[in-house]
Amino acid sequence: MKLKIQTQRSFERNLKKMKKRGKNLLKLKSILNILSDGKKVPEKYRNHKLVGNY
Predict the structure, then answer these.
(1) Overall domain count for the chain
(2) Does the pTM exceed 0.85?
(3) Would you put residue 52 in left (φ > 0), alpha (ψ -120 to 50) or beta?
(4) What's the pLDDT at 49?
(5) Could you tell me if 38 and 6 are in contact, meaning their C-beta atoms sit under 8 angstroms apart?
(6) DSSP secondary structure of 7-23
(7) Distance CA 30, CA 38 (A)
(8) Residue 36 CB coordination number (10 Å)
(9) Domain assignment of residue 33, yes or no
């Protein structure tokens, strides 16, 4: 079953900025497809610990 992904206005604005800056959106599309299929996201795309001084 394919789930429908609903986006917020802020996501749409950020996506528009990414397109304008020439970013590669294939990774984002693949992750959204995985999520809409109801599958788990691969480990390399999951949350990770940030490094640096905050």
Answers:
(1) 1
(2) no
(3) left
(4) 83
(5) no
(6) --HHHHHHHHHHHHTT-
(7) 13
(8) 13
(9) yes
